[in-house]
Amino acid sequence: MMKQGQIVTFFNKTGKYIGEITNIFSDHYVVRTLAVLKHPMQGDLHHPKETNVAFFHERKALAYKEQSNIPLKMVKPFDGTVPSYNESLKEAVIKMQMELQADPTDFNTKSLQCLHSIQREYELMYGIQW
At residue 79, what are phi and psi to the nearest 5 degrees? Predict the structure, then answer.
């Protein structure tokens, strides 16, 4: 069992993050987001890799210090230095872009369009320069 104040990694939807446990319940932790390790995938989570869906979701990473309820099994201890949120977000976005560009499928092209739109929001929210 983890403890309050512990630095951990956690998954939320298709993103992976570093955070701090702020509260503990019997079935989940409340975790404050501190950094992004993997940017969430774009599109419909129920129909992954498909573009012919009712709504192709634009998924942003959890915001800096955003608190989320995370199931116990999705949280693991983190051992290392926590990077800055902005730098970790930038690296995660660039990595995802490179992966999507490497295989120009319809899904990847649509995902890149969503990611480009999200980048503009990140610039406004966090002042990130690409």
Answer: -125, 110
pLDDT digits (tens, 9 = 90+) for 43-88: 877 777 778 887 788 999 999 999 999 999 999 999 999 999 999 9
For the domain covering 7-126, report its CATH number. 2.30.30.430
pTM, to two decimals:
0.92
The pLDDT score that the predictor gives to residue 71 is: 98
User: What are the phi and psi torsion angles at 72 (to 5°)?
Assistant: -50, -40
